[in-house]
Amino acid sequence: METLQLWLLLLAGLSGAVAQEDLYRKVFVFRKDPSDGHVVVKPEPERPLQNFTVCLRSFTDLTRPYGLFSYATKAQDNEILLFKPKPGEYRLYVGGEFVTFRVPETRMDWEHVCAGWESATGIAEFWMNGKPLPRKGLRKGYSISAEAVIILGQEQDSFGGGFDVYNSFTGEMTDVYMWGYGLSPGKMRAAYQSLQLPPCALGWRNLQYEIKGDVAVKPRLRDALVI
């Protein structure tokens, strides 16, 4: 078993290699600024989405714009996009349209964010470090296509590519999850606290991914959770 885990780590450390493993207490390190480095994650949803929740942690000293989570289809490059245009602000895109969430500016530290959306009401919600921000309206009645490419660390301007390196992420990322439904407030807080979470199609503890470019898998240096 230890030999298998070591082999998976070696594969993960090679650009372009495919791996599937439990990444508990590990991070993706996006090493270069600017860069076209990114991580392709799977599986894609099996059917169109009427609801979703995306959660992740990031750690960076960037002050320029950068993309964190990009879900693109052939018809729409910003089908789902979690983007940070500047310190103290996040944007959530659904179907090419976006809403802005203004967050408290913090000292340089890990930021845990969860973004959720439901088609029936068009309600978008955003949680930062276990606390909700005021909800907003976005693309009521829209349906998100299932045929997608999901990328971490870049904003896709075309299906699977079209990157602007000056919108690339540089830093560390961990605890990436996606659900095809909205999480309850209790589960949003549980995601921040790294507690047990409901089953999901895309999860950090059993992630299938492919590294492209200057990205490495490394142990986490310090605890990402500050309660």
Task: Walk me through this protein's architecture.
This protein has 227 residues and is mainly β. The protein is 8% helix and 41% strand. Strands 1-15-3-13-5-6-7-8 form an eight-stranded antiparallel β-sheet, covered by helices on one side. Strands 2, 4, 9, 10, 11, 12, 14 and 16 form an eight-stranded antiparallel β-sheet that branches. Strand 9 and strand 10 (123-128) form a beta hairpin. Residues 1-14 have low confidence and may be disordered.
Summarize the structure.
With 227 residues, the chain is mainly beta. Helix content is 8%, strand content 41%.
Order of strands in the sheet with the most strands?
1-15-3-13-5-6-7-8
The largest sheet is:
8 strands, antiparallel
Q: Residue share in helices?
A: under 10%
Overall mean pLDDT stands at 91
Cα-atom radius of gyration:
16 Å
The total count of strands amounts to 16
Strand portion, in percent? 35-45%
Distance, first to last CA: 34 Å
Question: Which class do the helix and strand fractions yield?
Answer: mainly beta
Low-pLDDT runs:
1-14
Domain Pentraxin (PTX): 24-223
Disulfide bonds: 55-114
Subcellular location: Secreted
Main location: secreted
